[in-house]
Amino acid sequence: MFGRIAHRYDLLNRVLSLGRDVSWRRVVAKRVAAARPDLVLDVCTGTGDLALAIGDGLVVGTDFCMPMLDLAKRKIADRERQLPLCAADALKLPVADASVDVVTVAFGVRNFSDLGAGLAELARALRPGGVLLVLEFSSPRGPFAPILGWWARNVPPRIGRVLSGDSEAYSYLPASVSTFPDRAEMRRSLTAAGLDQVCARALTGGVVTLYEGVRRQTGGC
Q1: What stretches of 107-152 adopt beta strand conformation (E)?
Q2: What order do you get walking across the sheet with 195-203 strand by strand?
Q3: Which of 28, 91, 164, 175 fits as disulfide partner to 8, beta carbons 3.0 to 4.6 Å?
Q4: What string of DSSP letters covers 84-104?
Q5: What is the pLDDT of residue 218?
């Protein structure tokens, strides 16, 4: 499904988020910078937008959708950037235990076939004290929640169908958000995966949430 819409993925991200997706990734990139890592693993990197926002010489991007990685490769070359990519399943990453300082995932964990196993795998890759940052869609809250919720349920399928020609993909988006764990449950899942200091930061009225956790110093995952 993601391979079918890869050629319109970036355009639809800008349109459906009204351009806010760029600022959401900047928030993650700033948090990565604050951690001062030597190595970042960007899982479900897609077309590479978050990895590019994080910076050269610091991040490796992984995804198992080859058409997305092909577009990321072209984007990186066009911008004359240096950013290695590899094809990888997020539930079985080709990295050693405790080998990276920060793991990032933007809009990917919602698509894991097994959320618990996927989060545990992300934590496994982190060194003790390393940081996991997960940016994911969530249920809006606050005074604008009804409007934002209506938009999320109704607009993506219609615009996505027109711009991508794929009705299934952008019907999947609101359906997957509605069945994804709420913030409290997601925090519990991150703790169960072996992370401490777990927190959730709502962005744009809660349409998106940035989850953060630190791998435990002892005891493993």
Answers
A1: 126-137
A2: 85-87, 59-63, 40-43, 100-106, 126-137, 208-215, 195-203
A3: 164
A4: -EEE-BTTB-SS-TT-EEEEE
A5: 64
Report mean pLDDT in 10-residue bins for the chain, 221 residues.
82 83 96 96 97 92 96 95 95 97 96 96 98 92 75 72 70 75 95 97 92 82 41
Answer CATH for 2-138+183-215 from 1.10.287.130, 3.40.50.2000, 3.40.50.150, 2.40.30.60: 3.40.50.150
Tokens coding 48: 């590479």
Backbone angles phi, psi at 212, to 5 degrees: -140, 140
Which class for 63: exposed (0-12), middle (13-18), buried (19 or more C-beta within 10 A)? buried
How many residues would you count in the chain?
221
- Extract the tokens encoding 115: 């959320």
